[in-house]
Fold:
Amino acid sequence: MTNHGGEHQEQHTGARWERLAPGVARRRLPGWDATTGAVAGETGVLVVDTGATLGEGAEIEREVRELFGLPVTHIALTHDHFDHVLGTAAFPGAAVYGAAGLARSLTEGAEELRGSAVRQGVDAREAAEATAQLVPPGHEVADGLTVSLGGGREAGLVSLGAAHSRYDLAVLVPGGEGAPDVVFCGDLVEESGEPQAGRDATPAAWPAALDRLLALGGDDAVYVPGHGAAVDARFVREQRNALARRFGVS
Structure:
């Protein structure tokens, strides 16, 4: 992206990001319509998912700095699919979080991840570069933990087990002062297409994972899918029931 001056760049960057609540924003990335999110406190920013290439990760890092004037200090990876994790090395120094088991999955499955990215249309050189610099989480979430971003801003990271992937993680951002809670769902919820169940999915557990997600956010939260527009609890509940019918579970 060419920089034609600071003011123009800020306006262009701001147009890419949807503000969900004070200090909380998301962007729908090109190509696979994958979500990246940003949660700002007083001392740093948590980024949720890092894109499909190092170049995409670097663009996210730059734009988040422009939006909030703060460094990216934390990263939460919602699961181990290429379009959500391959940009992580573009955030040097950030603490990286993922569900327990994700670090090993990324480390041992780097070649599989590279192949998946190439099959889905990522340039082979970019895919090789990103997987060679793959950053597994240094902080694993066995159940749930809270990340502090300064000034009272917190984000809850919750492991939801195996459903869409083997290691699904959600991020809850309490709203406060009349703002809605925001839940970053990863690909447990998809709005721009039918939820995808690959070889690493556990279909029988998926509806129960969405029940936990709904209990986490409640009826008034904004739910941010891994792909597509932000939705409400009713959408998540309807998708949960559709998945239960699709996979023959209650």
